[in-house]
């Protein structure tokens, strides 16, 4: 069995409706995933299953999610080793955990995406590491123009997690 991390793009199902993590775990278990665990109520799932291509796991989860909750949500999956490598590659380890985010991408970004995002940038530090976009907002995430620019239309399918969540998932993998 291999260990995987799944990140849901959104857990909002509609006005006033959110996915409950117990329901997400139950959906995953119905799909045959084992040892399912969640971290915080924002759509983070760790599970075990037979080793298989990431794209097939993503498709299985997305289809299962749509069937269980009536809405399509993009789901990004990484195997445990890749997640641990992502956690080790934070280019801003001196940043505040809730203010450093990574946009985990389905298809890797090229470093030239930083040029495209430059016009939205204030004092944020940014880097593309192994195809994922890291941003350190400093103490000004609420004042940034960057967040509205980080769309699927501009960057492709991906989802953001803060450094605290990245570390928490890495610790859960190690258990």
**Which H/E pattern describes the elements?**
EEEHEEHEHEHEEHEH
Rg on CA atoms, Å: 16 Å
Q: What is the number of strand segments?
A: 10
Largest sheet: 4 strands, antiparallel
Description:
The chain contains 6 helices and 10 strands; from the N terminus they run E-E-E-H-E-E-H-E-H-E-H-E-E-H-E-H. The model has no long low-confidence stretch (mean pLDDT 91). The chain has 2 domains: 81 residues, 2-Layer Sandwich (Alpha-Beta Plaits); 90 residues, Alpha-Beta Plaits (2-Layer Sandwich). The protein has 175 residues and is of the alpha+beta class. The strands form 3 sheets. The protein has a 4-stranded antiparallel sheet with strand order 4-5-1-6, sandwiched between helices. The chain is globular and about 45 Å long. A hairpin with a 2-residue loop joins strand 8 and strand 9. Helix 3 crosses helix 6.
Short description:
With 175 residues, the protein is α+β, with helices and mostly antiparallel strands. 32% of the residues lie in helices and 28% in strands.
What distinguishing features does this structure have?
175 residues, Alpha-Beta Plaits, 2 domains, 4-stranded antiparallel beta sheet, 32% helix, 28% strand, globular
Q: Helix and strand layout, with pairings?
A:
Elements (H helix, E strand, L loop, with lengths): L1 E7 L3 E3 L2 E2 L2 H10 L3 E5 L5 E6 L4 H16 L5 E5 H9 L11 E6 L7 H5 L7 E5 L2 E5 L15 H4 L2 E5 H12 L1
Antiparallel strand pairs: 1-5, 1-6, 2-3, 4-5, 7-9, 7-10, 8-9
Helix pairs in contact: 3-6
């Amino acid at each position: 069995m291999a260990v995987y991390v799944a990140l849901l793009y959104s857990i909002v199902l509609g006005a006033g409706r959110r996915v409950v993590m117990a329901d997400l775990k139950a959906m995953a278990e119905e799909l045959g995933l084992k040892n399912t665990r969640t971290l915080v109520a924002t759509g983070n799932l760790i599970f075990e299953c037979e080793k298989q291509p990431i794209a097939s796991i993503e498709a299985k989860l997305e289809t299962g999610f749509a069937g269980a909750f009536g809405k399509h949500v993009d789901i990004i999956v990484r195997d445990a080793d890749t997640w641990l490598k992502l956690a080790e590659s934070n280019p801003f380890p001196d940043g505040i955990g809730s203010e450093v985010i990574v946009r985990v991408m389905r298809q890797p970004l090229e470093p030239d995406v930083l040029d495209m995002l430059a016009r939205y940038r204030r004092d944020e530090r940014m880097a593309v590491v192994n195809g994922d976009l890291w941003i350190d907002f400093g103490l000004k995430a609420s004042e940034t123009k960057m967040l509205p620019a980080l769309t699927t239309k501009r960057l492709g399918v991906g989802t953001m997690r803060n450094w605290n969540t990245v570390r928490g998932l890495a610790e859960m993998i190690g258990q």
